[in-house]
Amino acid sequence: MSMNLSVRYTDKIHPLGDGKTYAIRPIHSDDRDRIIELFNHLSPESRYLRFAHAISKLPDDFLDDILHLDYAKEMALVAVVPSQNGDEEIIGISRYVTPPNKNVCEFSLSVSDHYAAHGIGTHLMLDLIAYAKENKLQEMLGYVLSKNPKMLHLVSELGFQVTNLDDDPDFKTVSLLL
């Protein structure tokens, strides 16, 4: 399945302050080491907030999944900055997956602690939402830890409805009609 990449998504550049910029692009199959690097730069708290449990290493099946997407049902975008060695460093990632036969997708988002509070998460989510709309999905859902006020604030700003889960006070459901 070929990827539906319209021009407006190709390498969007955003200012980072100090004259630096970052770009948002779809994930590439050769991004494995960069994703591992991003994860290694997340604080234990950020890892917990993202994966909802403490993990010290990314599972291989997670990496395989995210690097080999079925673009009809899933998308992953990365925010990248040039690294010292002339390569790219991934500083954030947003992703959605769609269960079979559903028009609803579930998103996740991680941004490097070092680059938090630069609007990177917002831009990653805006582009992800645009992809989901383009792929005719009807709703985007997420499960956010109640102890993650930054993420709850970010999705509220993007128009997501935040609701409590009756059976699990640790999480809130966030949803956006596309």
Could you characterize what this model shows?
- The protein has 178 residues and is α+β, with helices and mostly antiparallel strands.
- It has one domain (7-177): Gcn5-related N-acetyltransferase (GNAT) (Aminopeptidase, 3-Layer(aba) Sandwich).
- 28% of the residues lie in helices and 32% in strands.
- The chain has five helices and eight strands.
- The protein has an eight-stranded mixed beta sheet with strand order 1-2-3-4-5-6-8-7, sandwiched between helices.
What is this entry, summarized?
With 178 residues, this protein is of the alpha+beta class. It contains 5 helices and 8 strands.
On the 0 to 100 scale, the average pLDDT is: 85
Number of helices: 5
- Spatial separation of the terminal alpha carbons: 23 Å
- The radius of gyration computed from the alpha-carbon positions, rounded to a whole number of angstroms, is 16 Å
In the CATH hierarchy, what is the class? Alpha Beta
> How many structural domains are formed by the residues?
1
- Biggest pleated-sheet summary: 8 strands, mixed
Give the name of the CATH architecture: 3-Layer(aba) Sandwich
Structure characteristics:
178 residues; alpha+beta; Aminopeptidase; eight-stranded mixed β-sheet; globular; disordered N terminus
Topology:
Elements (H helix, E strand, L loop, with lengths): L11 E6 L2 E7 L5 H9 L3 H8 L8 H8 L7 E8 L5 E10 L6 E8 L8 H15 L4 E7 L3 H9 L3 E4 L6 E7 L1
Parallel strand pairs: 5-6
Antiparallel strand pairs: 1-2, 2-3, 3-4, 4-5, 6-8, 7-8
